[in-house]
Amino acid sequence: MRSRSPVLAAAAAALVFSALLIGPPPRASAAEQGDGGATLRQVGDDAQTRQLAFPGTPRDVRVETDADGYVVFGTPNCSGVGLYECRSAIASGSDASHSPVINTRNGYRISWPSSWREGETRHVGYLFSVARDWIAWWYSPNARVDLGQVTRPYAPRALTASVASKDDAARTARVTGTATPGASIRISGSPVATADQSGNWSYRLTGLSVGGNSRTFQQYVDGSYKDQETVSVTIVDPVQPDQITGDRGSATLERGKTTTVYSTYTPKRAFTTPSGRIEFTAPAGTTFAPGQDSQRGEYRSGSSWYSFGGNSLVHGSRSSDGHTYSFDLGQRNWDVAKDQKFRFGLRVETPVDVGSTSGTMTGRLSGSFTGGTFDTTATTDTTVADQPLTARVDRVDAATRTATIAGTAPGLATRVTLTWDRDGMATSRTVQPSGGTWTCDVDGLTTGVNQVEVEAFAGQASVGRTSVEVPVDAPTFDGSPSFADDVTERATVSGHGVPGAHVVLRDGVTEVGSATVAPDGTWSVRLTAPDRGGVWSLKATQTVAGQPPQVIDVPVDYGQAVRITSPGNGFIISPVFPEVRISGMAAPGAVVRLAEQGVAGSDLGSVTAGTDGRWAVSTPALPIRDQVIEATATGRGANTTRSTVSLSGS
C-alpha cells in the first residue's frame, strides 16, 4: 500500500484508509499477533504465511484545536525485521482498512467541515499505528487510541463595551458589549461576566463617584488574554427640581403703540443646554405682535444686558387671538452661571381703546437641564401710561332726585357719555372733558341705588369704560304741630317734603286736612281741634310721582281736658255778699267758663288755668235748688272740653 495525502472526512472527520496490497498477505501465527492478541489484518488464504512488520498502540496521542480546525498528534508504534515504514491512520471505529496513511508525529491538521458549528462537540474517532514491510501496510484493530470528544471553538471576536444605562442617584451603570462566545470578561484580572453563545455580555458597575469614572474591561479566551476596552461613565448629582425662578417686574404700555415687555428669570445653578418650552400670556386687553417666532434673549453681566449668541427660543407659535405666544427652548449652549439673570422681550400691542389700564404679562418656563428641572412663571405688571376713566358721585339731592357725577378721562378722550334710567326710561347725556376732568348732572333718579354707566370716546373709538352707583335716600318728610299764643287760634301742623308732593293728614281713616308741598319744600295744615283733650295721634302721608308713599306719625298734644274737682257745696260768706267757690284742673293757660247748664245766658264767671293747670271761680250764691254747673275750657289750638258737676239745693 502506497501513502497518499490526508482527506477531509465529510461527517465525523474520522479518517479511514485502504490498505493497498502489493502481494498476497502472509498468514500470521499467534506469536505474530499485534497488541491485544488480535490477528493482524490480512487478505487471502493464499497469501504468504510470514509477516515481517508489526503495528502496535500509538503513543503520546493528543488533539489540539484552533479557529481553522483540529490537529491530531501521535507517535506510531511499529516493530519487525522487515519494517520499511511506520505511520498512522484514523478511523471512526476498529476498521481502518480504508483509511489513508498519515504522519501524526508532528501533528496532522484537519479543517473544520462547514456542517460543524462553532461550539458543537463531536467524537473524532481512533488513532492506529500502521506498519509497512516489503509486501503491504498492516494495522491491528485492537491497537488503537480513542481521540475523544472535540469541541469546535468559537472564532475570536474583538471585545466591545459601552454604557447602556446609568442611575445617577444610585451611582451605578450597566455596561454591555460583545466578545468571543464563552470568553471571560474581567476587570483588573478578576472575572465579572461571561459572553453567552451569541457573544453578548453585560455587567453592572457599582460604587461610582460623582463626576467621571473610567473602567477597563479585558477579554480572556481559554484563560489567555486577548484584548481590552475602556468605558467612561459620568455620574451627576440627582436631578433637583425648581432650579430656575421667575422674577417679578413692571412695564409701562402706551395706547395705540407697541411696547417691548420683558420676562426675567434667575437660575439656582449653572446650566448649559436646557430643553423644554415657554409660554407667554399678554396683559388684559392687549395682544402680542406677530412675527416673533424666534428670540435670542439676553443675559445680565454686571449691570448690563447682552444678547445670547444664538436663538434661545425657537419654533414660536402665536395663538389665533394673539393673546399667547409659545416657544421651544433652543438646543444650544446657553452657558448661564448660577444666579445670572436672563430674560426675553416680546412686543406687546396696546389698542387705543384698551379698557383696563393695569394688567400682567406672564411667561411660564418649564423643562430640564443636566441635574435639574424647572417649572416657573415670571410676572411683569403693566400699566397703561394714559390716565384712566374714573367716575365719582359729588352730590345727591334726595328731594329733587338729582345728582352730580364727576371724574377723570384719558387725555385723548374727546367726549364722555353717561347712561342711566331716568324716571324708569333709559337715557344718555354727553359732556366734553376739559383738562382731563369732566362733570355731569343726572336727574329722574329713583330712591335706592342708581347704576350709571360711563364711557369715554376718542372720536368714535371707545377709550375707557366704568360705572358708578348713585344712592338716593328717601326724600325728607316730617311734620310737627305748632300753637299760637292765642289759645283760641287753631293748631297748625307743618313740615318738610318733596316740592309738589301731596300731603294728607288722617285720624285713622278720616282725612282731617291736606296740603301741597311748596317749591321751598315746606307744607302746613290748620287743624280743626277735636272735642277732647290729650294727644291726638295723626298720620301724615306724602305722595310723589314715581315714588312709593311715605307715612309718618304726627302727634298733636292739646293738653288735659277740663275737670271740676271741688264744686264747693254751700255758701261762702263774704263781707259783701255770700259766694260759691268752684275749682278744678285744665290745660295750662286754658280759659275756663262756668255756666248753669240749661239756663240761657247763664254766666257764672271765667278764669284762666294756671301753669300747673289749676283753676278756681268764685261766684255769687246760687238760688236754693238743685243745679248742674258746666265748666267749658278753651285750650291750645281752640281745643274745647267740658265738665259738669251737680249741686244740691240747701
Automatic annotation (TrEMBL):
This protein's UniProt keywords: Signal
UniProt cross-references to InterPro entries, sorted A to Z: Ig-like_fold
Signal peptide: 1-30
Superkingdom per UniProt: Bacteria
Protein name, UniProt field: Bacterial Ig domain-containing protein
Provenance organism: Curtobacterium oceanosedimentum
Lineage: Bacteria, Bacillati, Actinomycetota, Actinomycetes, Micrococcales
